[in-house]
């Protein structure tokens, strides 16, 4: 049986690329010992990725006590994967002037310095007293952008996608999709799993992955797995590892079989079923 020659489609520019919330990093209350003059509560870094750029967004509450005649601000330092500083941002450049010793809460919602290779952030609380110099009162631990694997299980009649193990006519575990950001801001999605053929004698199947733009529904990158043909009606499992590089957050994993038109005798690959996963947290 002859199959048409297929090749991997490289990543291309998308008409529009929606941003994705990739990770959330909540962190404990920050405070300055021993007086706790300034604290930061309900802190969270939300890592946004879109158009090839990673942006750490900080939210929380700046709490000041006995801060009369001083200014306070929040600083976010952004770093790349090699701990090189990418940039610094403040919730208010010249700080928040405090004119009372009573407790004061200031809502913070700000973006840190963005870039294609931003991977880490440090949050700092600063005070400016009678002098013009800003003093760091406290710093957070390093907050890191993490991605999380997604599980994929696709069922069909005699053809399934999942993990390596198989029992009672079905995969007992999932295939996985892992995600990795490149220094240029692109996203690599890697599928690792098994195609299972049962009672599929002389039938052929394969796995195809497609990076999908959720706004347009179009694929910006695709990769086709090897053709797997069952030798008999027993159970056969075939491992595949496929990857695509793109500028979009969704990946469709499709399970295909080779279908021949009885009238023309021409064959084509047809999706049996598919599952879509997303890098978003």
Plain-language structure description:
- This protein has no helices and 23 strands.
- It has 281 residues and is mainly beta.
- It folds into two domains: 20-144, Immunoglobulin-like; 150-278, Immunoglobulin-like, CATH 2.60.40.
- Strands 5, 6, 7, 9, 10 and 11 form a six-stranded antiparallel β-sheet that branches.
- Mean pLDDT is 91; it is low at 1-15.
| Radius of gyration, taken over Cα atoms and rounded to an integer in Å | 26 Å
Strand content: over 45%
CATH architecture descriptor of the largest domain = Sandwich
Order of helices and strands: EEEEEEEEEEEEEEEEEEEEEEE
CATH class of the largest domain: Mainly Beta
Individual helix count: 0
**Helicity range of the residues?**
under 10%
Main sheet attributes: strand count, strand direction, barrel closure: 6 strands, antiparallel
Number of domains: 2
In the CATH hierarchy, the third-tier topology of the largest domain is known as: Immunoglobulin-like
* Cα separation of the termini: 43 Å
Low-confidence stretches: 1-15
Question: Average pLDDT value?
Answer: 91
Strand count? 23
* Dominant shape: elongated
**Content-based structural category:** mainly beta
